[in-house]
Amino acid sequence: xxxxxxxxxxxxxxxxxxxxxxxxxxxxxxxxxxxxxxxxxxxxxxxxxxxxxxxxxxxxxxxxxxxxxxxxxxxxxxxxxxxxxxxxxxxxxxxxxxxxxxxxxxxxxxxxxxxxxxxxxxxxxxxxxxxxxxxxxxxxxxxxxxxxxxxxxxxxxxxxxxxxxxxxxxxxxxxxxxxxxxxxxxxxxxxxxxxxxxxxxxxxxxxxxxxxxxxxxxxxxxxxxxxxxxxxxxxxxxxxxxxxxxxxxxxxxxxxxxxxxxxxxxxxxxxxxxxxxxxxxxxxxx
Amino acid sequence: xxxxxxxxxxxxxxxxxxxxxxxxxxxxxxxxxxxxxxxxxxxxxxxxxxxxxxxxxxxxxxxxxxxxxxxxxxxxxxxxxxxxxxxxxxxxxxxxxxxxxxxxxxxxxxxxxxxxxxxxxxxxxxxxxxxxxxxxxxxxxxxxxxxxxxxxxxxxxxxxxxxxxxxxxxxxxxxxxxxxxxxxxxxxxxxxxxxxxxxxxxxxxxxxxxxxxxxxxxxxxxxxxxxxxxxxxxxxxxxxxxxxxxxxxxxxxxxxxxxxxxxxxxxxxxxxxxxxxxxxxxxxxxxxxxxxxxxxxxxxxxxxxxxxxxxxxxxxxxxxxxxxxxxxxxxxxxxxxxxxxxxxxxxxxxxxxxxxxxxxxxxxxxxxxxxxxxxxxxxxxxxxxxxxxxxxxxxxxxxxxxxxx
Lengths: 286, 405
Prior knowledge:
The structure holds 2 protein chains of 2 kinds.
Chain A: H1 3-22, E1 39-44, H2 53-61, E2 87-92, E3 95-100, H3 110-114, E4 120-122, E5 128-130, H4 140-144, E6 151-152, E7 161-162, H5 168-172, H6 178-182, E8 188-192, H7 193-206, E9 226-229, H8 250-276
Parallel strand pairs in A: 1-9
Antiparallel strand pairs in A: 1-8, 2-3, 4-5, 6-7
Chain B: H1 15-23, H2 32-54, H3 70-82, H4 85-94, H5 102-126, H6 135-138, H7 147-174, H8 177-185, H9 187-208, H10 225-251, H11 258-292, H12 302-328, H13 331-355, H14 369-390, H15 397-401
Helix pairs in contact in B: 2-14, 3-5, 3-13, 3-14, 4-5, 4-9, 5-7, 5-14, 7-8, 7-9, 9-10, 10-11, 10-13, 11-12, 12-13
C-alpha cells in the first residue's frame, strides 16, 4: 500500500466504527455496532517539518488561545493548560527531530484507574476523555499518569483538567482529529490502532536506515493508542523508556483485590477474639 | 452512678442556656498560647479566602510537575498516620481486653476523631473542585478501581465510627443517660469496624503511591508501600499519644486526679512497648525491601544518605531510645524517643509524597508561605477544638476511665 492509499484508508475505515459509538455517551445497545477495536494516532517524526499547524488546529478546535510560538528552539516544550499538543525540537544522535506530543490515550490508563469519580474515562472506542461535571480536582490523575499528561488550571477558581481530547466532536461527525487533518506532511495518521501498528511496523521494516527499530506505544505501559516512530531513540525525543510493559492499573490491582477480603475477615476475627476474651459485658465505652 | 459524672447538665437548666454557657471560653483569654495561635489562624483564613477567590496557584507553589504539596503530603498523609493511636488502643482495650489502656482511650479517640475531621477540612482546601466531593459518595460515579475511592470511603466511615466511639462522652456532658446507654452499647461494634477501616485506609494511603511508579525514588517506592504505611502508622500513633498525653496531663492537670496521674506513667510505658514492636517489624521490612529490590547500590548516593537518615536516624535510633527509656522507666526518655519518631514519620511521609517525588526534576517544589501558614492554622484550630472539648467533656483521668453504668 502506498502512502496515499493508506491515508485514505486511515481516514475512512475506523470512522464508520467510531461514528456509531462516539455518539453514545448513552449506554450500550443504542444504535450501531459496538466498537471492536480502539482508534489511535500514529506520529511519524521523520515526516514532521515543525510547521506547528497541528497546534494551531488543536487550539481552534478546542477554543484555546493561539499557541505561543514566539520562543521556539531546541528543547522540549511541555503541554500546558492551553497547548495540548506542543511540537518540540530535539537535538538527537540522528540530527534534529521535531516531535509532537499529546495524551497517549493508553489502552489501560493510569489516570482513569486513579480517578475516584470516573472523571477521566477510557471510552470504548479508545480515547481517554475528561468529564467536567464529575471531577473534584484532586489531581491524583497527574500523580498517576506516567507521561505527565493531565494539566491543572492553577490560576482559576473553578479549574479544569486540561489534556488532549482526541476531538470527540469531530469523531462523531466522521472526521479525524484536528491535528491529523491539519498536518500537511501526513506526520500524524488516524486509524484503528491495529492498522496503525501494522503501518508503523511496515514503515520501520521497509526503511531500516530511516527509523529506529521501535514502535513506541506498541507495548509500553500495556500499549497506547498514540504510537510514535522516529529516526531517533524514544528517550532522545522526550519519551520515557523505563516505564515497562505492565499496564499501570495493575500496580494497585492486588491491593484492591485484598480490600473486600480484609473488610470481611477482619471484623469476624476481631469479634471472635472479643468473645474469646469473654469480657464483652464489662467493656463499657471509651 | 451519675453522681460520678463530673460534668453534665444540671436539672432545671434549659438545654439552650447550657449550650450557650458552654460555648464561652473557660479561663483567661490572653494566654501565651492564644496570643500566638490566634493570629496564625486569622492569617490562615485570609490565605484560604485568596485561595478560593483566585485559585490554588495564588497561594501555593504547586505546578504541573508537582501537583501535590504539603497540604496533601503533610496535612493529610502525615496527619492520618499520627491519628493511628486510636485504632490500636481501642482494639487493645475493647477487643483484647487490655484494661490498663482504658483511661487513655477517650483522649486517643478524641484526638483521632479531630485529626480526621480537620484533615478532611484541609483536604477540601486542596481540591480544585471541592463541590464535586459528593460524587464518589452519593454514587454519581463510583470509581471503584481507584485506591483513592477506597481511601475516601474508609476515611469517611471511620470518621463516623470514631464519633460513635466518642459519643458516650458527649452524652455524659449533656446529661443524657438513656442515650448514653445506647451509645456505649455501640462501642464494641464501632471499635471493630473502626479497626478494619483504619487497617485499610492507613495502608491505602501508601497504596495511592503505587501508581506513581517511576516518579518516586526507588529507595522509597516499592510494592510494600501499603504494608509500610500500615506498620509505621502504629508507631506514629503511639509516639503521638505519648507526646500529646504527657502535654495534656500537664496542661489539663486540674482535670486529672493524683491516682490517675500515677497510672498514666505505666500506660505511657505500655504504649512505648507497642511502638518498639512496630518499629522493629518496620525496620526488618525496610531492610528486606532494600536488599530484595537490589537498591543497596543506591545507598551510596546522596539520596541513600537521606534514606539512611530517615530509617536509621529517625527509626532505628528512636527505637533504641525507647528501649532504654522503658528499661530505666524514664518518662522524659520515651518522650524524647517519641519526638524523634514523630520527626521520622514526617520525614517518611514527605519523602514519599513530596521530597523524593520526581527526584529527577531540576526544579523542585518548595512550599509557599501560604501553604505553611494554612497548615499551621489547621493544626492550631485542631488544638483549640481539642482544648474546648477536654475542658468540658469527661475525656481525661477519672472522668473518662471510671464512669460505669
